[in-house]
Amino acid sequence: MASGADRISDLPEDVLHHVLSLLPSRDAVRTCVLAQRWRDLWRSVPAVRVAGARGWARADAFVLFVDRLLRLRRGRAALDTCDLDLRFDGPFPGGERHGNRWIRRALRRQVRVLRFLLSTVPRVPLPLPDSPLVSDSLTTLELKGVLGNNQVLDFSSCPSLVDLKMEDCYVGGLEMWSPTYLFNRDLKCCSTFSKLKNLVLNAWFVAPDISALTWFLQYAPLLERLTLKVSEVPNNLVETEGSYSQLEQSFAASHLQIVEIKCKEVHGIILKILEVLNANGIPLEKISIRCSGRASQKLLLTTALKLPITPD
């Protein structure tokens, strides 16, 4: 480099795009001042990555940056990954208008991996439109801190969806861990998750009769990995006597490789979950429990069920 030659700028454009796609988008945009070759490269980088408003003088300046970042992309530049980790110490300025616009723009760019994670102080969820997401290319979706009606759970127009994670979301005016309402009104209206392979469910799936869990076992035929996070037991948990009968058409057992249950304490609901899994052809050998509760509870569960219990 003694001659002052800019060898990095001589690299093929797809190589430069790959390098920039590994950076936070704010840093990727800053490369526009390096040389003429770099001036517009950020506009076609295949990944958008933003993480919170910290480091910005004002939250609205951060929002303006993200808005322009998506709006000023080159006309036909495809977007492989859109990672929007939106953390605010206060409210989300213009939240509903901007948030929904960003999601729509990412989907129009044929995004494959979409993460929209919203965290505000105080916690205020982002209302989503009363229409389902539509994308032929979306394979991975992670949502946090959103609100909507039953359309939020309608992924019938996302035929390539493989990985789904929803956390701290609200459906039909209730948090997702108000499971009876969620399952009876919302999940039954959804079609089969024909390509879903990886699913993470938070505490909301623990319905009084665990019906949401049985629904996913029936309608996710290619599911390979299932993670269940049981943080608390609902007050309206129904005590069900006897064993659970097998679903009329349980597909999950044939492809499911691992079920990981994460809990703080060992409650009766854990045993009910195990009964449902076992009744639908999922052997105990495929089930792992990560428990952060008392050691005596872990020992009791390990002895009773002979399951691998991992301290969290």
UniProtKB/TrEMBL annotation:
Which residues are the signal sequence here?
Answer: none
Q: Which CDD domains match?
A: ACT, F-box_AtFBL13-like
Q: Where is the ACT domain?
A: 258-312
Source domain of life is Eukaryota
Q: Which Pfam families match?
A: F-box
Q: Which Gene3D superfamilies match?
A: 1.20.1280.50
Residues in F-box domain copies: 5-59
SUPFAM superfamilies in alphabetical order = F-box domain, RNI-like
Identify this protein by name: F-box domain-containing protein
Give the species this sequence originates from: Oryza nivara
